[in-house]
C-alpha cells in the first residue's frame, strides 16, 4: 500500500479481480480450469442449498415481522408516535433481518450457479 499526501493508505493493486460487474465475473470464471469450475459449481450449489436451512423459521419470522409491522403502523395511525409503536416497528425490523439476509444470500449463490452453468455451456460450445 502507498500513502497519499495526508498519510492515508490507498491500494496500489487489485489482488482479486472484481466480481461486481457481470463481465468481470465471467472473466474470472474463464480463468478456472474445468475441474476448478466444476468444483466451484458444487460449492455454490451447496451454499445455495444451505441458505434454505431452517426455512420454516424464516417463514415464521417473516409472519411475525409482518404482524409487528402492521400493529406498529396501526399504533402510529391510532395513537401517534408512542413507545409501543416504535418498539413494534423496531421489532418488525429485527424479526425480518435474518430472513432478509437469507433471501439475499440465496440470490447471490443462485447467480453464482447460473454463471458457472453459462461458463460450462460456453466451454462446451467452444469445444465442439
Count of extended strands: 2
Looking at how many chains there are and whether they match, the oligomeric state comes to single chain
Largest sheet strand order: 1-2
**Count of discrete structural domains:** 1
Distance between the termini: 45 Å
Helical/strand content category: mainly alpha
Main sheet specs: 2 strands, antiparallel
Mean pLDDT: 85
Tally of contiguous helical segments: 4
Shape: elongated
- Helix share, percent: over 70%
Spell the H/E element sequence.
EEHHHH
Give a topology summary:
Elements: E1 2-3, E2 9-10, H1 22-30, H2 34-50, H3 55-79, H4 83-127
Antiparallel strand pairs: 1-2
Notable characteristics:
mainly alpha, 3% strand
Protein model, in words:
The model has no long low-confidence stretch (mean pLDDT 85). The protein has one domain (33-127). Helices cover 75% and strands 3% of the residues. The protein is mainly alpha-helical and 128 residues long. The chain contains four helices and two strands, in the order ββαααα. Helix 2 (34-50) packs antiparallel against helix 4 (83-127) and helix 3 runs antiparallel to helix 4 (83-127). The radius of gyration is 23 Å and the shape is elongated. A two-stranded antiparallel sheet has the order 1-2.
Can you give me a brief rundown of this structure?
With 128 residues, this protein is mostly helical.
